[in-house]
Structures are given as structure tokens and as C-alpha cells.
Amino acid sequence: MAGTADREKKAQAFFTWIGKNFRTATISLFRPYDSGQITLNEYLDQTLFYRPRSFTREEFTAFMFAQSEEYPETRAILDKVSSSGKYFVGAINNEPLELNQYRIEAFDLRRNFLVFFSSCYVRSRKPEEMIFRVALEVTQRPPEQWSFH
């Protein structure tokens, strides 16, 4: 537990600093970043590394990715549901490309999810209708066969 508390403390301090130092461009650029219209590097160039910093881009992204963690209780449920073979399990989420790909790999999410309708892939975000419409059309399943959580 100390590791989690330490990580949370570091993250809080870091993101407090970020909150004070990120440009206001962050707000206007997050949507294009989250929906795959610009890369992480383009986003960081305009929001954080528009001037020299005491840390590198690599250190920042490593820290950002390190904040991802798997929740064992949730994973156990997901493993049970997906291994039953009774359900078509897909993901609909809002997430930037680099972070999405990192988490899919790091947590071996392909073992549970048959498809990923991530905002970075479909260029639409929840709760917009389009991301759900794309999921329905691609899977060729009627709405009554879906359960969005």
C-alpha cells in the first residue's frame, strides 16, 4: 500500500505543478489529442514543451504511462465474462492513441476484448452518438444486443 500512497503523492504534486504550468492551449487541444487528430508529441509540444523544462519528454511520458494500473477485482470479472463465450466483449472508451496502445499491451487487454472502439481510432468521443453508432455498424449487432457500461 505504501507504493500506491507514494505514487499518488508524487502524481498529485506533479499534476499540481502541471496545472500551474500547462498552457491554456491544453483545454483546446485535449479533444483533438483524445480523438486521434494530433499525436502525443504534437500535444506536448504545444502544451508543455513550448519552452525548456527541467525534465525530458521521455521522463514525462514514462511518468504518465506509469500512472496506469490494473484493478484485480475488475479484471477477474472481465476474465470470467469473456472466457464464458456467452458475450461479445468490446471496449468503447475515450483515450489518446499512445496511452490506449500502451494499456492494451501492458494489461494484455486483447485477451478479453474482441474489439476496441477508442476515441483515438474512431475520431469521436463518448457521449457523442457517433462512437456508439460506429460500434453498432462495425459489429453488425442490433442495439438491443448491446449493454454499454
Question: What can you see in these coordinates?
Answer:
The chain is mostly helical and 149 residues long. Helices cover 57% and strands 5% of the residues. The protein has 8 helices and 2 strands, in the order αααααβαβαα. The radius of gyration is 18 Å and the shape is globular. The mean pLDDT is 87.
Mean pLDDT: 87
> In one word, what is the shape?
globular
Spans of at least 5 consecutive residues whose pLDDT stays below 50 are: none
Order of the strands making up the biggest sheet: 1-2
Descriptive key words:
57% helix, two-stranded parallel sheet, 149 residues, mainly alpha
Concise synopsis of the structure shown:
The chain is mainly α and 149 residues long.
Write the layout of secondary structure elements.
Blueprint: H1 2-21, H2 25-34, H3 40-47, H4 57-66, H5 72-83, E1 90-93, H6 97-106, E2 115-118, H7 119-122, H8 129-139
Parallel strand pairs: 1-2
Helix pairs in contact: 2-3
